[in-house]
Amino acid sequence: MSISEELLEILACPKCKGEVVVSEATDSLTCAACALRYPIKDDIPVMLIDEAASLG
Predict the structure, then answer these.
(1) Which of 18, 22, 42, 51 is deepest in the core (most CB within 10 A)?
(2) How many other CB atoms are found less than 10 A from the CB of residue 3?
(3) What are phi and psi of 24, to 5 degrees?
(4) How confident is the model at residue 56 (pLDDT cuts 50, 70, 90)?
(5) pLDDT tens, 3-44?
(6) Domains plus CATH for the chain?
(7) CA-to-CA distance for 5 and 28, rounded, in angstroms?
(8) Where are the beta strands (DSSP E) in 1-56?
């Protein structure tokens, strides 16, 4: 998985607009504030609330 640092700087959680971080273990981006995990498919982050999974 390779998401550029430039892309990570501009990506934000679509629900709360908070910071997302890469989770290499689960191939996803996570938002700690919302406790949501957004999948990364074919190196493309899927930043749709309907596609997100709960962390808890």
Answers:
(1) 22
(2) 14
(3) -60, -35
(4) confident
(5) 888 998 999 999 999 999 999 888 999 999 999 999 999 889
(6) 5-54 (2.20.25.10)
(7) 15
(8) 21-23, 28-31, 36-41, 44-45, 53-54
Distance CA 39, CA 41 (A): 6
Tell which residue, 41, 40, 35, has the closest CA to residue 18: 35
Whether the Cβ atoms of residue 28 and residue 39 lie closer than 8 Å to each other: yes
Which pair of tokens denotes residue 14? 């679509």
CA-CA-CA-CA torsion sign (18, 21, 14, 38): negative
What is the C-alpha separation between 34 and 15, in angstroms, rounded?
Answer: 8
